[in-house]
Amino acid sequence: MHQSDQTQDSRDPAQDYVLGNGVREQNRLQYQAAILEKWTGQFFVSAGIQPGMKVLDLGCGMGDVSLLAAKLVGPTGSVIAIDRDRVILEKARERAHRAGHAGNIEFLYANVLEFDSPLDFDAVVGRYTLLYQPDPVSAVRHAAKQVRSGGIVLFHEMDFANPIRSYPDGTLFGRVYTLVAETLRRAGCHPGLDLHLTRIFREAGLSWPTIKAEVPIGGEPGCFLYTWFTETLRSVLPRLEQFNLANADELDLDSLVARMETEALACHSQLIGPRQFGAWTRKAVSEGRHADNALLRAIWD
Ligand SMILES: C[S@@+](CC[C@H](N)C(=O)[O-])C[C@H]1O[C@@H](n2cnc3c(N)ncnc32)[C@H](O)[C@@H]1O
After folding, report:
1. d(CA 60, CA 67)
2. Using one digit for the tens of pLDDT, what is the confidence trace for 14-58?
3. How distant, in Å, are the alpha carbons of 13, 14, 134, 211, 295 from that of 10?
4. 131 alpha carbon to ligand 1 midpoint, in Å?
5. Cβ of 234: how many Cβ atoms within 10 Å?
6. How far is the CA of 59 from the centre of ligand 1 (A)?
7. Rounded Cα–Cα distance for residues 301 and 295 (Å)
8. Cα separation, 44 vs 71, whole angstroms
């Protein structure tokens, strides 16, 4: 149905990706997806993703969002999922096959900024995709072109630049938060993009988005935040060291989960993770606009 190689780079762009593309990052994505699923699911349902729809998933990674979308659209719907990392796409394909969704998800190697499809999708979605794009406005504008009039444009992004204050100040958790944010920023990503979602949608030519936010909170024994933050720090470590922000010996990642947890428990900490933002809108129905204009003209005349 599609050309599976729409991008013909001589250099593999996935190599520049700040989180890397090793097995550990693939596992981290699945761990993270389990944390985020309920929120992404709420955003999808609230936005109106429903059975029978054709959905495009941008920057699918290990395919967790694609699988979620496939469940919501059911056997009468379908999902096309794209990523610029060939290895991760193969893993995502295997996972979809094992989950019994081989028939309604297609994984394609393509760049989010270039992928063009003859299909008019009912929805285009992406989770943690925009913050990695050099120009998020162009990315949203291009994404919106793939959607039919009246279709949904939805992004789930996070805030890694403006942490809500945790209790107490000055913890190891806070230091890890800052190190990840600074690495993302120096690598040219947009860890504070969540605050600009309205502007990005509007500058991309879309109407005002509905925006909802959720906040991960923890600090109890075994809390997911210790592992999530440690594994995220591990994924950005090569870039973090390149930027001289810290070094592996000093961070001692193998003991970081235990150290973060011990400190948090001793302080009765309340740790606040990155806010999760869902932003969506429907692409204007041009026929509807003409009808409205005709109605207005009739009133004025
Ligand atoms: C943080 S992961 C998120 C994966 C998935 N959306 C999820 O939430 O589990 C971002 C993914 O987007 C992909 N990506 C980033 N920029 C891209 C681009 N311009 N074109 C295609 N894929 C891209 C990366 O290769 C990576 O797999």
Report:
1. 10
2. 668 999 989 999 999 999 999 999 999 999 999 999 999 999 999
3. 9, 12, 19, 38, 53
4. 10
5. 21
6. 3
7. 10
8. 11
Going by CA atoms, what residue is nearest to atom 24 of ligand 1? Answer: 59
Does the beta carbon of 33 sit less than 6 angstroms from any atom of ligand 1?
Answer: yes
CB 125 within 8 A of CB 44: yes
Q: Could you count the other beta carbons within 10 Å of the beta carbon of residue 27?
A: 12
Give me the phi and psi of 16, to 5 degrees please.
-90, -5
Q: How far is the CA of 129 from the centre of ligand 1 (A)?
A: 5
Does residue 6 surpass a pLDDT of 60? no
CA angle 39, 44, 48 (to 5 degrees): 145
d(CA 189, CA 134) in angstroms, rounded, equals 7
Helices (H), the chain: 23-47, 64-73, 86-98, 136-145, 172-186, 197-203, 224-242, 248-251, 256-267, 286-300
Q: Out of 129, 157, 160, 180, give the residue to mutate to test ligand 1, the one with the largest number of ligand atoms within 8 Å of its CB.
A: 129
The predicted-structure confidence for 147-191, as pLDDT tens digits, reads as follows: 999 999 999 999 999 889 999 999 999 999 999 999 999 999 999
DSSP annotation of 167 reads B
On the question of pLDDT at 9 being above 60, the answer is: no
Residue 16: CA count within 13 A, CB half-sphere: 12
Per-residue pLDDT of 106-151, as tens digits, reads: 999 999 999 999 989 999 999 999 999 999 999 999 999 999 999 9
Mean pLDDT (the chain, rounded): 92
Nearest to 121 by CA among 68, 69, 155, 80: 80
Region 222-237: mean pLDDT is 98
Looking up tokens 């081989």, which residue turns up? 102
